[in-house]
Write a structure and sequence with these properties.
GO terms for molecular function: diguanylate cyclase activity. There is one protein chain. The chain is α+β, with helices and mostly antiparallel strands. It has helices at about 5-20, 30-35, 40-45, 55-65, 65-70, 75-90, 95-110, 115-130, 135-150, 155-170, 175-185, 195-210, 215-230, 235-250, 255-270, 275-290, 295-305, 315-330, 335-350, 355-370, 375-395, 395-400, 405-410, 415-435, 435-480, 490-505, 520-530, 530-545, 575-590, 615-620, 625-640, and strands spanning about 490, 510-520, 555-560, 560-570, 595-600, 600-605, 605-610, 615, 645-650. The strands form 2 sheets. Strands 1, 2, 3, 4, 7, 8 and 9 form a 7-stranded mixed beta sheet that branches. Strands 5-6 form a two-stranded antiparallel ribbon. Helix 10 (about 155-170) packs parallel to helix 12. The longest helix is centred in the C-terminal third of the chain and has 45 residues, at about 435-480. It is elongated, with a radius of gyration of 38 Å.
Length: about 650
């Protein structure tokens, strides 16, 4: 007989706490929204659950204009809350999140603390859905602090509920339960508040994870009764019915589960929310595994995985893969099951989900054992045992107190509850004493393993750093060296000028620039093809590089043009125009005297060279554009004189 014990004692809590909370005036945006233009229609739109998303969006844009939500925090609150609900019903979680981020932006712009707090709370829920729990806790802590500062009690309670969910996802059940009950203290001020049933259902999920199936059933039943009496959203009907089906399976009453699943499916279709639909598919897959109809379980798991948006929800995506692997294993498809488990394993490990990791390792063990690989099966079974042990210590609530009785006393007599908790903790410590030696041995093994990992990590980091250095060298090479000729390119030329500037500040030196251009290069490409043209470029590059000093620089400027930069100390033997002309004449002859010979084909090669007048090196680094321009003019003179010659600029 269901007597709703939990609801009764929460009503007692409400009556006891009511005078304390009533002492402070609660802020609520809904009172202000009601006074706005179209205020009543806006509130109806906020509460509506069954309106088509397109119609809802049309009404939203009709009731609230852009300039209104940009200037008024109450319009902004309503607009982006409704827009969030619309995008969720459309299966667009990213757009829903963007709506909340816009709410936060306007809250900051208008300096409205309560609106910022509302946005932080919703962003924390997205972080929870994405498995980003640390970020979620940071966001919800901001929401709690800001909502308390403006006495927005309902938001504080919703933030407690969200924070509890974040702790629950990390298997921290004691902290989660504390927060759920703190939220209920506030929600029970109005017993008709739909969040009452939400939190009751959340408490049932904690009992469910602690495998306290009778209490889980009672709490979830109370949540459904509250929903039937006061109403609620399609999302709530779906979640509570899914939970009821799962709990019945654990109670050995699996034959009673199907009506609840059918109800959950009906309400999930009404929400239009893809996350809720995916959760219902998970519930069906779990149900069919329970009744050993594995092909049907595979069908529902694959429906979940085939949804285009499932990867936006890493927790659901991991659960779908895990149930698919379980069904495949039961059908004897062990290799396929292991491949699917690999996906779940990496995601659960990233989310640090101990309960699911334990289940994954146990499945690995069974699959490898079925394949005859007993050594690997044993390794995974040990890993499953380690996760189970860690999870057992995190579930101290199961050893410390009887949850429902403990919290009844907590709210009636605070000191007595504290004494009972301390006594229970002492009992737990005594119970653990017998396992200390084994635990110590285990810790030593872990320590040795960690040292091994650290040493291995060090060598990996050294290797990784070397790889990064090699990659950086390669990137530098790719960005500063011409890939065809192996010469430096124009970008390196500019870097080199900076180095020359520093050198010229330390010692006096002179320099000049020359441009080398291949004669009739276009004709070579047109006649013999671009491959032959590339060979010409390569041969000339080698000739140029072979006929300059190590301290000089030759770069491929682009196309068939090369630039040579000569630099020499001022106290060096004076180099005049004639010496420079002679030097570049030797370079021209080195090219001219060595035609390109390929496949019995001989192609004569000549170059024209234009040289700038020698300058002080410091002056050249500042006026290199001008020096290059003079060398270019000299080059054109060389071209005009019939090519295959060297000309120095007059000025």
């Amino acid at each position: 007989m269901r007597n709703g014990k939990l609801v009764v004692y929460l009503l007692i809590i409400w009556a006891w706490q009511m005078p304390l909370i009533a002492q402070s005036t609660e802020f609520t945006p809904f009172v202000n929204i009601a006074t706005l233009s179209n205020g009543k229609k806006i509130l109806q739109l906020l509460d509506s659950q069954d309106i088509d998303s397109k119609i809802k969006l049309q009404k939203l844009n009709q009731y609230i204009l852009a300039e209104q939500f940009q200037q008024s925090p109450y319009y902004a609150f309503a607009y982006f809350r409704i827009l969030h609900d619309i995008e969720i019903s459309r299966g667009q979680p990213k757009k829903a999140k963007q709506a909340i981020e816009s709410m936060l932006s306007i809250g900051k712009e208008l300096q409205q603390t309560w609106l910022e707090a509302e946005a932080y709370m919703w962003l924390a829920t997205f972080a929870a859905k994405e498995g980003n729990f640390d970020n979620g806790l940071n966001l919800v802590e901001r929401a709690i602090r800001l909502s308390k500062s403006v006495q927005f009690h309902h938001l504080t309670a919703r933030s407690y509920n969200t924070k509890a969910a974040l702790y629950y996802f990390q298997d921290q059940y004691y902290l989660a339960l504390e927060l759920y009950l703190s939220a209920l203290e506030i929600f029970m001020i109005d017993p008709e508040d739909p969040y009452v049933s939400k939190v009751l259902s959340n408490i049932s999920i904690i009992y469910l994870d602690l495998e306290e199936w009778d209490k889980a059933w009672e709490s979830n039943y109370d949540a459904l009764q509250h929903l039937e009496k006061y109403g609620g959203s399609n999302e709530q009907y779906t979640a509570f019915n899914n939970n009821a089906a799962f709990i019945l399976e654990q109670l050995g009453r699996v034959e009673e589960s199907e009506p609840y699943l059918i109800n959950a499916q009906k309400y999930s279709e009404r929400t239009g929310d893809i996350r809720i639909k995916l959760n219902n598919l998970l519930a069906w897959a779990h149900y069919y595994i329970s009744i050993k109809q594995y092909p049907r379980a595979i069908t529902f798991a694959e429906q979940c995985l085939n949804n285009a948006q499932v990867e936006s929800y890493p927790v659901i995506y991991s659960d779908c893969n895990r149930l698919l692997a379980k069904a495949l294993h039961h059908l004897g498809q062990h290799k396929e099951a292991i491949e699917v488990l690999n996906l779940s394993h990496s995601l659960y490990k990233e989310m640090e989900s101990q309960a699911n990791l334990a289940d994954v390792y146990a499945l690995y063990s069974l699959a490898f054992e079925a394949q005859g690989d007993f050594q690997t099966a044993l390794i995974y079974q040990r890993q499953a045992n380690i996760e189970d042990k860690a999870l057992l210590f995190d579930r101290r609530a199961k050893m410390i107190f009887n949850l429902s009785e403990q919290y009844k006393d907590k709210y009636r007599q605070q000191q007595l509850a504290l004494l009972e908790a301390e006594n229970a903790l002492q009992t737990a410590k005594l119970a653990e004493q017998g396992t200390r030696e084994k635990l110590m041995f285990f810790l030593i093994l872990v320590g040795v393993f960690l040292i091994f990992i650290l040493v291995k990590k060090r060598y990996w980091l050294e290797s990784h750093n070397k790889s990064l250095q090699d990659s950086n060298d390669e990137l530098y090479k790719q960005s500063h060296i011409d890939s065809l000729t192996g010469l430096y390119n124009r970008r390196y030329f500019l870097d080199y000028l900076n180095q020359l500037t520093q050198l010229s500040q330390r010692q006096a030196s002179q320099a000049c620039i020359a441009i080398v251009d291949i004669d009739h290069f276009k004709a070579v490409n047109d006649t013999y093809g671009h491959d032959m043209g590339d060979e010409v470029l390569i041969q000339i590059s080698k000739a140029l590089h072979a006929n300059i000093r190590d301290s000089d620089l030759v770069v491929r400027w682009g196309g068939e043009e090369f630039v040579i930069l000569l630099c020499w100390p001022q106290n060096y033997t004076s180099i005049g125009s004639e010496e420079l002309l002679a030097k570049f004449e030797r370079i021209r002859l080195a090219v001219c005297n060595k035609p390109l010979v390929m496949d019995k084909l001989t192609i004569p090669i000549t170059v024209s060279i234009g040289i700038s007048q020698p300058l002080d090196a410091k002056e050249l680094t500042l006026e290199w554009h001008s020096a290059l321009e003079h060398a270019d003019k000299a080059l054109y003179q060389a071209k005009g004189l019939g090519r295959n010659c060297v000309i120095m600029a007059k000025n």
